[in-house]
Amino acid sequence: MVILMLRHPMDHDIVEDINNRIYVVVGNQHPPNGLIAYLKYIPGNGAGIWVRQGMPFKRVLKAYGVKSLHTYLPRHQEFVYDPVLNSYVPMVNKSSILKYYYPEIRLHEILSRVDDELEFSVIEFIDILRKHSRLSVNDLGITGSLLTKTHNVNVSDVDMVIYGCNNALEFMDCVSYFDKAKLTYEDLVKQSNTYGLDVDTLARINPPYKRILVRGKEVNVIFVDNSPPPRYGSRIYVNLGVMEVVAEVIGGNCRSLMYPSIAEVSRIKDVILGDSSLARLIKYVVSYEGLYSYQLFLGGNLRIRGLIQMVIPDHEYQLLVGGIEEPGYVIPRD
């Protein structure tokens, strides 16, 4: 089976395979024969929370985060070794894809016809956005269960996509105009179990563009790079071991808000773990864990733990956070 693509695959697109298994696309760079994508929903039996046209679905992932990804997914989805990333990644073969879901197309469907209260919250979110920014609906998309029409009005949230670097910065200038749902202590404890950080740290680093409250529904904003991706294999990443440093990171980079998050290091201030001479060569921090994107966007003095990698053929060095070998973290340095 061959699916005609309307554009190149982008982060948080969604695909469905011939067995009605629903996957979320990860990043913009993919091997020729497949997509790096994690399995999120599979067909269920009997009644379910998520239903589409009478077909119930159940969620595979119990929680977000790289730890959860590698705990639950291997029971349902094969991980394939990627020689470019030098890591095992969840993959779906292009030949098995039944349907491709585009966030921007689904958003225009909702704008032309609103069917329920959750979709009404999308409209109100956009109204607030238009009032306080120059963003238009052409800069936006909708992902998650609303994209696949498997949403449950009572329990689902809204996952809004904002495309493009400049648009991400535009949104950050107006994020304060939105109401926020408060993180409860129970929420923070769940995050602590997922990420291994204490609740006080998590309360400090949670991004302001998550858990926005609109019409009583939670809205999460996801920033996606819509520029053409580099050729697959143009850069290869070699793991050189675990490293922990205190680094001065340059803030304000729109690419820090996207996936994977990228921020430039101005200098290494301290080496807590690893080879000091190698640490001084680190040019970038790259995070595959979305929780840390906002800290990289803010920049400043950060304590960072991850894998140091050499990038070939550039012969540059980066510190990778969110890898299976070492999840790591990015937290403010007091």
Question: How is the topology of this model organized?
Answer:
Layout: E1 14-17, E2 22-25, E3 34-43, E4 50-52, E5 55-59, H1 66-72, E6 79-82, E7 87-93, E8 97-101, H2 103-112, H3 117-132, E9 140-143, H4 145-148, E10 158-163, H5 165-174, E11 179-180, H6 185-195, H7 199-205, E12 212-214, E13 217-224, E14 236-249, E15 261-273, H8 276-279, E16 282-287, H9 293-298, E17 300-312, E18 316-321, E19 329-332
Parallel strand pairs: 10-13, 16-18
Antiparallel strand pairs: 1-2, 1-8, 2-3, 3-5, 3-7, 4-5, 6-7, 9-10, 11-12, 12-13, 14-15, 14-17, 15-16, 17-18, 17-19
Helix pairs in contact: 6-7
What this model shows, in words?
- This protein has 334 residues and is an alpha+beta fold.
- It folds into 3 domains: 14-101, no CATH class; 103-224, no CATH class; 236-332, OB fold (Dihydrolipoamide Acetyltransferase, E2P) (Beta Barrel).
- The protein has 9 helices and 19 strands.
- The strands form 3 sheets. Strands 1, 2, 3, 4, 5, 6, 7 and 8 form an 8-stranded antiparallel β-sheet that branches. Strands 9-10-13-12-11 form a 5-stranded mixed β-sheet. Strands 14-15-16-18-17 form a 5-stranded mixed beta barrel.
